[in-house]
């Protein structure tokens, strides 16, 4: 197969209205990312490719194309990470007009990594962003649910790319950081952390000064391709709970945030609590916590 001939022009996000349909002469218009325009469908899957042994090679930084021949079709792609760094894996289907609902599994058997993504943010397509060790990686793409069909309307694009760190933070969490021994934030206003173990809780101690009683906390994780499902808890040193949120209650945002208008001066304890499955541990499950203190409006 090739790219579906019925594929409508796709917004290539470079500010013009044409699509980059001619892969031999990528659009030279300005690009939001500062990176060269992506080449689309320079690689197409080669069936059969259901397993890691017959995977299609996926060059980095290239949007490759595949199609589900029927609802049981599984497509496996293989690539190599040669240098430690942030890795992004995106699979688009819905976003480019496909009928397919997808589930994506990223694995690196030698590294003991297996992570499944089926959506990100408010979109039904899948995106993974994680700090990656060097080694061979596989992306397995299948359809989700039994009502799926196959054929030319059931296509997708997959991209594996090296990435800058998706967030900048002042400090990194230091495990162990249980409730009884929280990490002191000091002047830091943002922390990078991850889910180190099953039911991980990361606790931070924040000094609330007189005159800045409004405390706002926000976690960014799933919105940027982390698979971490986190909740936030705020309590006094004495044990009184001042606030709690969870992703289930977060409304329009998947990642939790909390705003407390009048916190007494003194130390508060901030807990970032893993709510995912017990196996949701390791590099794909990271978060950034940001903290702000303001005066009464
Ligand atoms: Ca296929
Ligand atoms: Ca296949
Ligand atoms: Ca942790
Ligand atoms: Ca911890």
Summarize the structure.
The chain is mostly beta strands. The protein has strands at 40-44, 56-57, 63-67, 75-81, 85-92, 102-108, 113-117, 126-132, 135-143, 155-163, 171-172, 183-184, 190-194, 201-208, 214-220, 230-236, 241-245, 257-260, 266-274, 286-294. One calcium ion is lined by residues 45, 47, 66-69, 73, 75.
Labels describing this entry:
Jelly Rolls; single chain; five-stranded mixed β-sheet; binds calcium ion; elongated; 297 residues; mainly beta; 0% helix
Distinct ligands, ions and cofactors found in the model:
calcium ion
* Beta-strand residue fraction: 35-45%
Q: Level of helix content?
A: under 10%
Report the principal-axis shape. Answer: elongated
Please write the string of helix (H) and strand (E) elements.
EEEEEEEEEEEEEEEEEEEE
Mean pLDDT: 86
Query: Number of DSSP strands?
Result: 20
* CATH architecture group name of the largest domain: Sandwich
Q: C-alpha Rg, in Å?
A: 22 Å
**Structural domains: how many:** 2
Residue windows where pLDDT falls under 50 for at least 5 positions: 1-31
Q: Largest beta sheet, briefly? A: 5 strands, mixed
The secondary structure category is mainly beta
State the end-to-end distance.
Answer: 60 Å
- What is the CATH C level class of the largest domain, in words? Mainly Beta
- Lateral arrangement of strands in the main beta sheet: 1-3-10-5-8
């Amino acid at each position: 197969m090739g790219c579906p001939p019925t594929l409508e022009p796709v917004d290539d996000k470079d500010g013009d209205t044409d699509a980059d349909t001619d892969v031999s002469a990528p659009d030279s218009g300005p690009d939001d990312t500062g990176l060269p325009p992506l080449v689309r469908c320079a690689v197409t899957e080669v069936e059969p490719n259901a397993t890691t042994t017959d995977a299609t090679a996926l060059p980095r930084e290239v949007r490759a194309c595949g199609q589900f021949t029927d609802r049981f079709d599984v497509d496996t792609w293989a690539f190599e990470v040669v240098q430690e760094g942030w890795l992004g894996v995106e699979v688009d289907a819905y976003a480019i007009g496909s009928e397919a609902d997808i589930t994506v599994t990223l694995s690196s058997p030698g590294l003991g990594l297996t992570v499944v993504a089926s959506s990100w943010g408010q979109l039904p397509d899948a995106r993974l962003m994680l700090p990656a060790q060097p080694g061979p990686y596989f992306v397995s793409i299948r359809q989700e649910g039994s009502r799926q069909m196959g054929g030319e309307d059931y296509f997708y694009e997959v991209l594996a790319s090296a990435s800058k760190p998706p967030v900048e933070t002042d400090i990194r969490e230091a495990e162990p950081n249980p409730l009884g021994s929280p990490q002191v934030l000091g002047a830091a206003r943002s922390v990078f952390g991850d889910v180190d173990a099953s039911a991980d809780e990361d606790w931070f101690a924040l000094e609330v000064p007189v005159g800045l009683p409004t405390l706002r906390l926000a976690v960014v994780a799933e919105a940027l391709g982390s698979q971490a499902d986190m909740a936030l808890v705020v309590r006094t040193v004495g044990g009184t709970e001042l606030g709690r949120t969870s992703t289930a209650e977060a409304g329009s945002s998947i990642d939790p945030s909390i705003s407390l208008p009048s916190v007494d001066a003194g130390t508060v304890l901030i807990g970032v609590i893993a709510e995912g499955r017990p196996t949701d541990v390791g590099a794909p499950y990271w978060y950034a916590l940001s903290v702000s203190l303001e005066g009464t409006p």
